[in-house]
């Protein structure tokens, strides 16, 4: 706790807030691309403190939220297949597909197990050799090393009844997609510190050179976030655009080489559908051909294609693209709540809508 207190010092936070206000000669628009950062900004009231100085736009920083309905539907079909156990992290269970969620499927008799690590799914497959165990591999580059390790462990131990349903997504291609939107307003990015801890931030340098937008690698504690915002504002005020690391205690330019090596050994980049965005070029990962025997999509038939039906009230696609704040959606807090969500950003613990429900519930209109 003492370690965390160092990055939550209220006196230091007030000084940083004052410095941001002093430096900014005009309002600036920044996007954080991690749901953990979104929750940190709202939980500590940073967005409110700076609302006249910096507008903080919440990007698609939640891999659970951008997992397409088709992948969730396929996971549900697997869970209802004889002799198949579908395993997943708990945050995927309530996310709706084209109709219901994995939690609904489990309530209907589907075999859905919550695990805390992909290696738990490998162990489950060892204990149930007569059944197929599938792990729903969702996440940014931060979780890809663990799922790659699980594949290698299964191969090493001869666990032939284990496979992955891969839905890993990559952050930087999504940033590329956002800056090319015709209504893009982002003037600088707060990059996800945990992703950069694994993958480094060298690849952002060509991005910055091309788009002339500052990218600041930022952590998740209040002082981390304020340091990142201040660095971005200083660059914008001086007309600069470069990659800057404000998460030096964890992130390095080259990243974690050992983690990258195992990811590159097992996966390759591929075009990937993102919920709310469509297909993003090189926006995800797929198993390399030499590991294809662990690909659930190759192991199981696709089944019946279901029509994708999204709520006409839910504007989660606009939330994920940073076009609107959650409170600008008419369904927010009324027909869409954490107990009865219409879209993934209200379901996921890192979703922007869930963050607003926790820290910025809809303000009631004032009466005169």
Instruction: Note the overall shape.
Output: globular
What Rg, in angstroms, do the CA atoms define? 21 Å
Helix content, binned percent: 40-55%
How are strands sequenced across the largest beta sheet?
2-1-7-8-9
Strand/helix succession: HHEHHEHHEHEHEHEHEHHEHEHEEHHHH
What is the number of E strands?
Answer: 11
Cα distance spanning the termini: 47 Å
CATH class of the largest domain: Alpha Beta
What order do the helices and strands come in, and which of them pair?
Elements lengths: L1 H4 L4 H14 L4 E5 L2 H9 L2 H4 L4 E5 L4 H4 L2 H11 L4 E5 L13 H6 L4 E3 L3 H10 L4 E8 L4 H14 L4 E7 L2 H9 L8 E5 H7 L4 H8 L3 E4 L3 H17 L4 E3 L11 H10 E8 L3 E10 L8 H4 L16 H5 L23 H4 L4 H8 L9
Helix pairs in contact: 2-13, 3-18, 8-9, 9-14
Describe this protein's structure.
The protein has 368 residues and is an alpha/beta fold. The chain has three domains: 2-62 and 172-245, HypD, alpha/beta domain 1 (Rossmann fold); 64-170 and 255-299, Rossmann fold (3-Layer(aba) Sandwich), CATH 3.40.50; 316-359, no CATH class. It has 18 helices and eleven strands. The chain has a five-stranded parallel β-sheet with strand order 2-1-7-8-9. Strands 4-3-5-6 form a four-stranded parallel β-sheet, with helices on both faces. A two-stranded antiparallel sheet has the order 10-11. Strand 3 (84-88), helix 7 (102-107) and strand 4 form a beta-alpha-beta unit. The longest helix is centred in the middle third of the chain and has 17 residues, at 222-238.
């Amino acid at each position: 706790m003492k370690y965390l207190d160092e990055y939550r010092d209220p006196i230091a936070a007030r000084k940083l807030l004052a410095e941001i206000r002093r430096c900014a000669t005009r309002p600036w628009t920044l996007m954080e691309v991690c749901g953990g950062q979104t929750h940190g900004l709202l939980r500590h009231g940073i967005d409110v403190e700076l609302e006249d100085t910096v507008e903080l736009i919440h990007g698609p920083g939640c891999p659970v939220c951008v997992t397409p309905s088709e992948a969730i539907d396929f996971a549900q079909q697997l869970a209802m297949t004889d002799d198949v156990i579908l395993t997943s992290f708990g945050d995927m269970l309530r996310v709706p597909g084209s109709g219901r969620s994995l939690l609904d499927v489990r309530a209907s008799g589907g075999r859905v197990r919550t695990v805390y690590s992909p290696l738990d799914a490998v162990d489950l497959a060892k204990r149930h050799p007569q059944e197929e165990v599938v792990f729903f591999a969702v996440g940014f580059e931060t979780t890809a090393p663990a799922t790659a390790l699980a594949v290698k462990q299964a191969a090493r131990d001869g666990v032939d009844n284990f496979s992955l349903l891969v839905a890993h997504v990559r952050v930087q291609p999504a940033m590329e997609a956002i800056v090319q939107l015709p209504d893009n307003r982002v003037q600088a990015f707060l990059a996800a510190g945990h992703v950069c801890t694994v993958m480094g931030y060298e690849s952002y340098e060509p991005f910055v050179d091309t788009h002339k937008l500052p990218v600041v690698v930022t952590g998740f504690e209040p002082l981390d976030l304020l340091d990142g915002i201040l660095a971005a504002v200083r660059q914008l005020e001086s007309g600069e655009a470069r990659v800057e690391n404000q998460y030096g205690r964890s992130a390095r330019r080259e990243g974690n080489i050992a983690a990258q090596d195992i990811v590159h050994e097992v996966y390759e980049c591929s075009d990937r559908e993102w919920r709310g965005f469509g297909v993003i070029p090189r926006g995800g990962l797929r198993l390399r051909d030499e590991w294809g025997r662990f690909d659930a999509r190759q192991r199981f038939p696709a089944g019946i294609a279901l029509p994708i039906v999204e709520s006409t009230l839910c504007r989660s696609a606009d939330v994920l693209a940073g076009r609107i704040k959650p409170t600008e959606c008419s369904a927010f807090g009324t027909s869409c709540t954490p107990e009865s969500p219409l879209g993934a950003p209200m379901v996921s613990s890192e979703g922007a809508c869930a963050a607003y429900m926790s820290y910025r519930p809809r303000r009631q209109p004032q009466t005169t």
